[in-house]
Amino acid sequence: MKIYVVSGLGADFKVLEKIQFPEHHEIVFIDWLIPYQNEEFSHYVIRMAEKIDVSEPFYLLGYSFGGIMVQEINKLKPAQKIVILGSIKSDKEKSRLIKTGEVTGIPRILPVRLFNQRTAEMYGVIRKFFDSKNPKILQYFTVRDSYYLKWSVEKISAWKFDENPDVIQILGDRDIVFPIKNSKPDFIIKGGTHLFPLMKFKEVSYILKGVFA
Q1: Which of 16, 116, 141, 162 is buried most, with the most CB atoms less than 10 Å from its CB?
Q2: How many other C-beta atoms are found inside a 10 Å radius of the C-beta of residue 53?
Q3: What is the DSSP string of 34-81?
Q4: 146-158 vs 41-48: helix axis angle to the nearest 10?
Q5: Do residues 58 and 3 touch, judged by C-beta distance below 8 A?
Q6: Which of 132, 192, 198, 161 is CA-nearest to residue 68?
Q7: At what angle do helices 146-158 and 65-76 cross, to 10 degrees?
Q8: Helical pair 96-104 and 146-158, crossing angle rounded to 10 deg
C-alpha cells in the first residue's frame, strides 16, 4: 500500500529521511506547490491531492503544516489511515502565537518581502536558542519562495477544522510550535522538539511500524 507523505512548511523530504517506514509499503512524497496569486486554500488542497491515486487504498502522513494538509486532502480523497507528526487535529489546538495571528490578522498585512532569505537565516539562529541539539535547520528549509511562505503562514493562522477522531497524532513533549498542552496525542515522543522526526527517528519508526502494520 502507498503512504503519501507531505513534509513541513518550507521543508522537503529530508527532514523525514531518517525514518524507517515499513518495507512492505511504497512511500510517495508530495512536494509543496507554489500557490497562485490570492489562491484559496481549498483550491490549493485540490492541486496538492492530484498526485494521489484513489484506484487503490492508501495512507496519508503529514508533518507540521503537512499534517494540516493531509487532513484537508483526506476530505477529498479518504485514506485508510491518517497520521500526523508534530501537527494539530483542529484549530482548537493552535498555539497562543498562532491564535494571535488569527485574531489580529497580522499575517495578512505583513509584506511579502519580509519572508526572504535573511529572515529564514534569522529564524535558524533563533531556533538554536530553543533547541541547541538540532542540526542546521536551514538545510531542511528548502522551499523559500517568499509568496509561498507568507501565504502558508496566513493559511495556518486562519485554519478552521473539526477534529477527526480517526487521525493518529504523534507529538513531541518539547514542541514549541504546537505545544503538547493543547493536544491529547495518541503517541508522545519524550524529549521531542518540533524536529523530532529527525532527532528521534528511531522512536518514530517504531511507532509507524505498529500503526502501518
Answers
A1: 16
A2: 10
A3: PPPTT--HHHHHHHHGGG--TTS-EEEEEETHHHHHHHHHHHHS--SE
A4: 110
A5: yes
A6: 161
A7: 70
A8: 100
Cα–Cα distance measured from residue 170 to residue 185, given in angstroms and rounded to the nearest whole number: 6
Rounded Cα distance between 158 and 98, Å, is: 9
Per-residue pLDDT of the chain (213 residues; tens, 9 = 90+): 999 999 998 878 888 999 999 989 999 999 999 999 999 999 999 999 999 999 999 999 999 999 999 999 999 999 999 999 999 999 999 988 888 877 777 667 666 766 655 554 444 443 443 454 555 565 666 666 888 888 998 999 999 999 999 999 999 999 988 999 999 999 999 999 988 998 899 999 999 999 998
The strand pair at 81-85 and 168-172 is best described as parallel
Residue with C-alpha cell 522551499?
143
pTM, two decimal places:
0.87
